[in-house]
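Show me any protein, fold above all:
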Amino acid sequence: MSEIREKIHELFGVKEPHELPAAMMAVVNDSTKLSAICANYKYIFPDTAHDYLRDYFQENQADRSNLMQDYTPQSICQIVAEITGKRQLIADLCAGTGSLTLEAWRRNPDSEFICYELSSAAVPFLCFNLAVRNVSAWVVHGDLLTDEVQAVYRVHDGTVTEVEGFPRDKVDAVITNPPYSLKWSGAHDIRFGSYSVPPKKAADYAFVLIGLDMLKDDGIMSAILPHGVLFRGNTEADIRKELLCDHRVSAVIGLPRALFAATDIPVAVMVFRNHSDDLLVIDAENEMTHRPKQNIMESQHIETVIGAYKMRRDIDKLAHVATYQELEKNDYNLNIPRYVSNFEEEVLPPPTESMRAIIDRHKEIKQQKLELLEMIKQMQAENVETGKEFQEFVELFEEWTNL
């Protein structure tokens, strides 16, 4: 990572990470400089499929304490992009450096995107990431929860221009990895419609409801969320029930823990559609390769998840299609083990095999005891008094050895 950091610093003419957002924004606002820097970036980092700026931002700029910033691993981006499919207008809520958008764009190069981002530090990274790949998008710098907009940038044909507004039309798809359990005002918003207002202590469902308000009737939304949204009580339980009863939750996909660089909590992808006839639940917690610091989902793991999603049928220890009667029976609690069990029953060996193992172990122990007894016998006491006690000990030890 240090080598990548040095290359990025050299490219934008800075020495320290805190200098980069301003320097990058200055480049973004100058079309001549932007064109030259984009060309140099692609020469240094020819693999545009990988988001190097995301990796840099996660390590050097992310605000985990205040903004709960955890940038989306490539594997989850791929899963969300596959679920989203081919769509024309896609909104990315809490876009960060644009990883979800970039993965969706690779499958939909003719699509247009509306990327919402609050962080002033992340917006320059987002604009540059889009421009260097010629993605067509609007970057909305503002607070999605309050609908306050600070600035809008139009990214098109490798240029970035500040503009007055952006499309407010309904979109074909929403993708989002919002900050988990972010504290917020808890104020009612017209975008929530008839749904209950999410609690102040966790804005997870606020982001969900805002995203749903943007969707066309035949649209799809994929939200990366903490597992708590699946089973927490009180107001969140009310919202969960309301969404399920409205047939708007299409799938819940539980992913492995420790996929993120900054947190080891497991997350789930919740897929929302209108008019869903049932609920697909996938438990993919074991679909990963373990690493000491950060687990990874490799291509075979991603294919397993996407295959189960597309088949939409029961798969032993992996997936279950739940009816609305089941959901009601479970009081609309979506905790994944209620629907998918990946418990592996232990296979016991034949009794004769177990008995042979016990006998062999007993022989090993007896041999070790005999060897220890011989070692003890070779020891000598310091005087007559301790000699008598030592002799008695040896006799008892020998008696124990012969049991």
